[in-house]
Batch of 2 targets.
Target 1
Amino acid sequence: MSSTFFTASPHWRWLILAYFFLGGLAAGSYFLTTLLDLFGKGRDRRLVHLGYLIAFPLVCVCGLVLTVDLGRPERFWHMLVQSETLRPMLKVYSPMSTGAWALLLFGGCAFLSFVAVLAERRRLGWPLLRQLGPPAFVGRLVTVIGALLGFYVAGYFSASMWRATPGSSSPSRIARSGRTRPFSGSPS
Amino acid sequence: MTEPMGFFTDTTVCIGCKACEVACKEWNQLPAANGGVRPLSGDSYDNTRHLDGIHWRHVKFIEQFSADRRQGRWLMMSDVCKHCVRAGCLEVCPTGAIIRTEFDTVVIQSDACNGCRDCIGACPFGVIDINPVSGTAQKCTLCYDRMKVGLEPACAKACPTKSINFGTIVDLKKMAQARLGQLQHAGESRAYLYGTDEGMLGGLNSFYLLVDKPEVYGLPPDPQLPSRNLKSSAVWSTLGAVIVTLTSLISFRNRGRGDV
């Protein structure tokens, strides 16, 4: 029997599924919007605005959903800051750790782009904020970094699930099926 | 760091009394499930069924009977965290709650854990689960608090048949080899040690003497670290990113050109 069937289910249920969907939407929206922003034409502006305007609220919902799903939601920040020493908490070889940072930074980029769009549409009366979106250099930097982080956000969780123990992504029924079952087989 | 400590569990002398389970729950003040009314499994004399957040020790009953019930065999195995030298749970834990102690054991610090449950899926043995009272992931600590003051873990102390042995890894390995030799000399040729080989996650600091294949005891024959698939995951994700980029760039261009 494969080693994948001896692990237990991490109980990642519908909140996590919601995160997959919404996180994918946010990241995909931001990623495609960045491409359209950098390589598209002037008449694509409305679509570009829409893409950036969608991404930020969705990331906020993602963060909220992930936090609520924790066993101890009030300790969500333990993934970013070590609770005892208050030093930054990052493990480059743990998809969940890098993913938490990526989500935070992606959220930051999405926020800046969101603000830039509002400024461009004159909803915010501070023209300097338009520098946060292309074609300004800072704006290009924000969107490119944001798009890359977005793709990481969309991809890292699959690495969390698709690892030595694919059983972790299956319902507990399957994950537990490999555990000792009484009355199975004849005595050898 | 002091000397690495661990368990050697000789399953051949386990009688399935579950004193270790009780001692563990009592010392670690683990809550009862279901208001103390344990639902009966209905198909086994074992009603604990598996390790979880409130059962850090579990005596597995492997009850094997032929269809006519004329022949039967009972295997007992007191299961616990393996305290892997290269531990999957410790590798993935994003809060740093899971640490390696000075005794070379793996401990989850409950006050740092935020209950993300990544470690549950990362453990190839299915040891960790959420304790519903604390809301955090919990498992055997090898009685870190007792070891600190020179006491042996509660389960080993309670075991009436010396199936659970506690000590330094060096001493335990000597003891296990001696017992293995004794059994083989007596004609039990199927006996072998599970987890002493460093090829298995760097060696398990809680290892076993078994008399059948690991799968029969619900143990993985070849446990792996979660990081094993990191590279392939990264390659596939990057490939996905490249494909999405190219497809959208091409479609954007065509959109401009077609203009219908």
Target 2
Amino acid sequence: MRVILLFVIVFSAAFAKLNVGVAYPYIEQLTKTIAQDRVKITVLSRGDWDPHFVVPKPSLVAKIRDIDVLILNGASLEMGWLPPLIQSAHNTKIQEGSNGYLDLSQYVKLQDIPKSVNRSMGHVHEEGNPHFALDPDNMIPLAEVIMLTLSLHDKSNYSFYKKNFEAFKVHWQKKLKSYAAKMKKCEGMKVIQYHELYNYFLRRYGIQSIDNIEPIPGIKPNSKHAIKLVNEIKDLDIKLILQDVYHEHKTAQFIAQKTDAKVVELPHDVGAVKGTKTLDRFFDTLVGRVCN
Amino acid sequence: MKKLLMISAVAVSLLSAEEGTEDLIMQQLESMKTKSTTTSGFMPDISLIVDGSYNHISFDEDGHTDHLEIPGFIHGGADEHSDHMHTPLAGNDGFNFNYAEVSLGASVDSYFDLLAVFHITEDDFETEEAYATTRSLPYHLRAKIGKFKSDFGYLNNKHEHNYNFAKMPLIYLSLLGDHGINETGAQLQYVLPSSVYVMAGIESLQGDNEQSYGVDGFLDVDDVSVPGLWVGYLKTSFDLGGGTLLGGVSIATGDSRINHLEDEHEHEEDMEEEEGHAFAGDTTIYGVDLTYKKYFAADHAITWQSEYLYRNMDGTQYNAEGIGTSIEKKQAGFYSELIYQYDRNWRTGVRYSGITQNDVSINPDIPDDMYVTSAMLEYHFSEFSRVRLEYNYDSSLYSEEGEKNNKNEISLQFNYAIGAHGAHAF
């Protein structure tokens, strides 16, 4: 009798894998690092997509109907697509405010918080710049928050998650040291980017972002602005134009042709370009392409 | 017995230990937060949309547009709300303020969300929607109560600014009027536990629609017992061939009390042969919808969307003298549209909208060759402003004498939105 009972307990525990939904691939990688195969992870977007404009397909509703925890970037990055999915999924566990709803931005010090917000400034996020995942130094606190949240829902694996987090922390501190060393020689470098996507990364390593290819957030470049950029590049001796994968590449190439600046395509999330399937390789690529 | 006691003691201590960890974890999480409250506080999301256009309209027979009708569906004549002669089907030439839409929404508490949408035109202020939805019903259920746009079909729950063309398709206008099924009532929806998205919903509604449903009796016809309208639907969606398919079947069935006896009395003097009438009976509308969307990038997509509606009306038609004739209508139509979004700025599309069946028992000679073809090109300055150039060829309008009078319409429509920026529905 007791043997059967034991079996039942063991089996039900084995089948009751925590079901986690994540908004972006970098969150998937962090969650995998902590939980390995002890949770089921569903990613709602792809690394090569524009994170602001994920398509809210109803098929995603079926994917989040039964998840126990939803981990999102927050700071309004998902504002255009996630709320209708949550509303349609009728899943009480992942409603904003319940403990299955983890908004990572709440655990990060946000930058670029506007003093005043007006739509004539384009698509600005009033909470601040949501692209904080581009700063490798944010990975450890984010991993810890994920570890704690998973533990909250799956206490039996607390020590396992904690052990993995500690190992990740040691490993990542080494990575941070090596990134800092590699980026040292690029300190003070001036760059132009398409959208204010890499601010956290650039500030971390003392690189100056002089201007953006889009004149204001979310608005397409025009020729007048492109000419202004060409002059800026010449005047300030800017060497690098940071191009993400999802915006048009033509303007950057046009500007590069008129100047000595080089266009470099950068990933903004895990899997955005080839060879960035893991967190390590993603940041290795980012560091390698900006500063070599 | 002893063993049992011991086991339970161990279990209890384990449980309380776990509770201790839980508190600890919660505290740790809380202490890691960089900010304790959000900036938006308790302000609801507020938005305002304003839509206007410049229309150029011409008819095959320009002199015969006062009493246009869609035979078997919409009767001609003047709009009762207005003092001057105003024929809705003819449209308004020149500058138009189409509508303003104000919406307010926020969570009430942890149990409900509240949303209200006000539709404002030059003469009217309408509460288009005002409803609460549940946030925490168990078993994957969600309930809605208040006034809302029904989730019947694909297009019915969309707001005017989300239409791909200025007007609703012909079959919607003909069977359900300008606002579709927009009713006071209650709704319950359930998402099925399947790997493929399947949603089932049911709505109990008061039952008041200018074209198909109604509750108030007239002459010696009794009021109907309310709720007078029931709506049900099943929707599914899955990924197919690199795109997403969205499909649904819907039914709306209810009592009809449609009274046009008063409407046309005003014109009795000048329009002798015209006579108002009324209908009492039952109406059922069936709908099938299918949408296929393929995204090449987040802002580069093609959408093919179609819907077929069938109406069966069965009852008695009364003339002004109160004489009833038994009548049955079997009517159907569809629309199909292809929309191509080139990038964040440009969109273009075409739509065909036609009546395929118009069987009216008391009038076997009624025409059924009604259709509208539309084409549009949109430029979006940003997510919040757009201009749309649209052309419509409307071959659904007939004069009182039963002569076709085709309408050509070119419009340049401006749409602006300020305030809270809602997410886009699929």
